[in-house]
């Protein structure tokens, strides 16, 4: 705990940042790719914590490239392409359309 943060691994920095950001009940919680770091246990705990905030009435904005995380955590999705909205709507509709575009 007394070591400078620059000596921490990126995994520990992500865990620390997430715990600090979720220490209070915010009106809006912005999560940017947090589920792409850490081990499976951290990802599971993070997802549970995010859903806890959602269930308590916070608006949760999740930024992710992982369709399974988006399906698990979100009720609506926005597909951005080159900084512009390509599509917005239900998670399944947006992810299905996005996935089709990759083929």
Question: What does the secondary structure layout of this molecule look like, with pairings?
Answer:
Layout: H1 10-21, E1 28-32, H2 40-55, E2 59-63, H3 67-73, E3 76-81, E4 84-90, H4 91-101
Give your account of this protein's structure.
The chain is an alpha+beta fold and 103 residues long. It has helices at residues 10-21, 40-55, 67-73, 91-101; strands at 28-32, 59-63, 76-81, 84-90. The protein contains four helices and four strands, in the order αβαβαββα. A two-stranded parallel ribbon has the order 1-2. The model has no long low-confidence stretch (mean pLDDT 86).
Tell me briefly what this model is.
This protein has helices at 10-21, 40-55, 67-73, 91-101, and strands at residues 28-32, 59-63, 76-81, 84-90.
Features:
single chain, 103 residues, alpha+beta, two-stranded parallel ribbon, two-stranded antiparallel ribbon, 4 helices, globular
Mean pLDDT: 86
Q: Which secondary-structure class do the elements indicate? A: alpha+beta
Distance between the termini: 48 Å
What best-fitting shape do the alpha-carbon axes yield?
Answer: globular
